Amino acid sequence: MTKTLYLIHHSHTDIGYTDRQEKISRYHVNFIRRAIQILDEIESGQAPQWAGYNYVCENYWQVEQFLAHATETEKTSFTKYVEKGLIDISLTYLNLTELVDNVMLDKKFADAKNYVSQFDRKFDSAMTADINGFAWGYVDLMHKNGIRNFFSCLHTHHGMFPLFKKQMPFYWQGQSGEKVLVWNGDHYQIGNDFLFSPNTDQSKQYGIEGFTEKDWEDQFEATKQRVFGYFDLLEEENYEFDFCPVMISGIVTDNSPTSPRMMEGIHRWNEVYGDEIKVELVTLNHFFEILRGKELEIPTYSGDWADWWADGVSSTPAGVKLYREAQRKYRLVNKLDPNGEKANPAQLKDAEDHLVMYAEHTWGFHSSVSEPWDAFVNLLDTRKLSYAINGNRLVSNHLDDILETYGEEPNQLDRESFFKVINPHDDQVKTLASIYVQHWQTVDDSYFYTTLNDFVEVVDCQTGEVLVSQVSDSSRGKKISFYVDLAAKEERTVRLRRKDTKFKMNQKYDNHAHVGTEQIADIAPYEGFTHDVSIYGVKTDHLDITIDQNSGISSIIDRKTGAQLIHPDALHAPFAGVYEVTSFKDSNPYSVRSIMGRNRKAPSTERYTSKLVNIKQLADGPLYAVLLLKYELEGTGMYDVVLTVHKGAPQIDVTIRLQKTCAWEPENLYVALPFTYGTPEKTENYFEKSGTIFRPGIDQLPGSNTNFYSLDNGAIFKNEDQHLFVAMKDTPLVTLGSLESQLVELCDENSRKKNKEVLYSWAMNNFWETNFKVDLSGFYELEYAIYLLEDEATDVAQPIQSARNLIEGLITIPYNPTDLEKSTF
Fold first, then answer.
1. Can you give the residue range of the structural domain that contains 454?
2. Do residue 131 and residue 271 come from a single domain?
3. Which of 389, 420, 393 is nearest to 405 (CA)?
4. Tens of pLDDT along 583-621?
5. How many CB atoms lie within 10 A of CB 207?
6. CATH number, domain at 430?
7. Which of 250, 384, 432, 742 is most buried by a 10 A CB count?
8. What Pfam families does the database record attribute to this sequence (predicted)?
9. Is residue 799 part of a domain?
C-alpha cells in the first residue's frame, strides 16, 4: 500500500528574532510577491520543473502587510492565485502569547474571516508555529469565526506536545461544546530535514565547485534514508495512518524566504519511490479536506492547553506592566463606548495593532543572552517595548477622548471642585473611588498643607450626604478616597468641600493610655480601648490579619466564617519574595540555559527567601489602614510590601516595590501567594484567561503543561459559596507547588493534586538562552489584591466578573455641572 507524505510550505513568522520588527514586515511582503512570481513562471511555462508549487501564508498578518504595500496588479495576481488555491491563508493572525485576551483575539480572527469571505472557495483552517499551547478559549473563538481546523506546529525545546504523542488528530472541544479538529503536529520545519530542495543550508556542500550533480545524488540518497526512516519510526511507534503531514520552509530559518526548488526533489522522489511513499505539496486547507475525507476514529478532548512558552512574559516585566494597564483601559473603552461612536475608531485600531504586536511570541533577538551588550539586541528590545508604550499611549488617549464626551474637564484654575464618578460596568459596583488634587489646586479657595489631610469632605450632590473619606499622599498630589455604591452604568456627581477643622491638642497631653509622648502606639487593647491596627496585625469587620515579626503575614481569617485564608502547606508568607539564581561558573550564559529543559532551573540552583527586617504603620483611617513590610532579598536592593487593608470591604490591596539588581546568570523571582479558603481539601482553584475559566491540573488536555500558566486577571479559590480572588494586575505568570528542581509532571489522572498546591506569582525570569532580555534590573511596582466574594451561584463566573470589575474599578473625572444640574443638587 502506498503511503503519502504531505508537505505544507510556509514561512514561519517570528517578529524580531532574526531582524528588526519592521524589516520582518518587509520580508513577508516580499515572500508573497516572490510566490506570485513563481506561480506566474509556472503558469507561463517558463518553469515546468516547479509544477505543483503552492504557498501558505502562515497568518493573516502577512496578508495585511502585503495588501498595505502591494500594487493593484500584485493584488489582482494575489487574488487570482488565492482563488485557485495555490496561495492559501491561515486564519490565525499571529503566533501569539497568552497575554492576548479573548476580545482582541476575537477581533483579529474576525479580520481574517472577513477578508477571506470574498473568495469563492472554502477557508476554514488555521495554523500556528513555535507556540506550544493555547488558551481553552481559542476553541470557541476559532469556531465563532469559521475556523474548523487547526494545525499545531510545536517546538519541544523547553516545551512539549499534549496527549503524550504528536503527529495525531483530535477534536478539541470548547466550553460551549463546539469542536475544532486539531492536527497535533511536529516542528514547523521538519520537512526540511528530508532535503527535497537542492543545495540547502543543510546540504553542507561548501566545495569551490558549488553544488555538483554528484552532491545532488548524494543528497538524494540521504533523502531516501530519512523519508523511509521517518515512516519506519512511525510504524515502530504504532502510528495508525498511511499518511503523515509535515511543514516545510524554503530554508531552515525563521522568516524563511519561499522557494520552489523543493518541487525538483519532490518530482525526482515520486519518479523513483512514489509507488511506495508518495510526496505531495498541499496547502493547509487542502490537507484538512483530505483529512476530513478519510474515515478515521478521532478522539475528543477538552480543557486548557497551557503554553510552555508563556514564561516569556516574565522576562520583560516593565513592558508587560504597561501592556496590562493598556489592556484594562481597552476593556473600559469597550464598556464606555461599545458602539465606537464617541472617539476616532482609527485611533483604537492603531492601539489594537500595537498591543497585538506586543503580545506576539518573540521577545528579542536570537543572541540576547550570549551578547546582551550588542547594539542590535538592545535595538530590538527597545522596538519590542515600543509596542507596549505606543499601545498604552494610544488607548489612554482614546479613553481620554471618550471621557471628554462624558464631561471630563481639563485643568483649570479656581474650578469648583465637582467630580463625576462613573460605573462603566454592567453590574452594580461598590468600591473606593479616588480624586487626586495637585499641589496648586484648591478646595473652596484653600490649599492642602503638606501635613493637613482632614480639611475636606466629599459630598454626594444627589443626596447631600457627606461620604466617609480618607486622604493620603501620592505621587500625583493628595488622594481623596471614598466609598460609593453605583448601579450598572450609573453616574454620580460629588463635590469636595472645605470643612471646619478644630485644633487638636498634641497627642502627648492625652489622658488615656493609648499613645506615649514619643508618639509610639504600642498598648494592647483593654476595656474601653481597641487597638485594631498596629505593626502586629489589622482587624476589620471583615478580616483579622496577624503579622509575624520574623516572616510577615502569618494568618488571615475571614471573620464572617472563621475560615483561614492561608494555605497550611505555605513555606513562605503571603507576598514574600523568593529569588533563584543558577551559576554558570563551569559553563557559559548560553549553555547553562540551553540544558535546563522544561524545569526552568537546575538541581544546583540556589534559592533565597526574603527576610523581614522592619514593619511600619503608615496610615489608619476610617476607610483603610496601611502597613509597610520591609524585606531583604538576594538579587534585589529593595523589596518592600505595602498592605492596604480596606475597612469597608473584605479586600487587601498589595503593592510590591522592588529594586532588581543586574545578573547575567539565569534568575527567577517569585512572589508567594499561598492562599486557599478554609481547608484545601474543600477548596477548588480556578484560573481565568482568554474568556475561559478552568481548574489547573484538572480541566486540561492530557499531557499538557501543569508547571506554570499565564492568566488574565488572577485565580479564584472556591469553597461552596465562598470565593477568594487573588488578583495579579501586572504579573500574569503563576506556578503551583514546590519550587525545587524536579521531574516535570504532565496533566494526567494524577495531576488533580496540583489544584490543591501552593500558588506563586512568577514575576521575573531570564532563563531562555536566545531571545529573553537578560537584564532584569530596575525599579518596579507590582500590584496584587485579594477580594472575598460571596455568591450563591453554582459556578465561579459571576464572582470572577465581580473581581474583574473591582480590578478595572470606577472612573472619576473632574466635571463642571450645568446650572440646571446644580439646581437639582
1. 418-504+811-824
2. yes
3. 420
4. 988 789 999 988 888 988 989 899 999 999 999 999 999
5. 9
6. 2.60.40.1180
7. 384
8. Glyco_hydro_38N
9. no
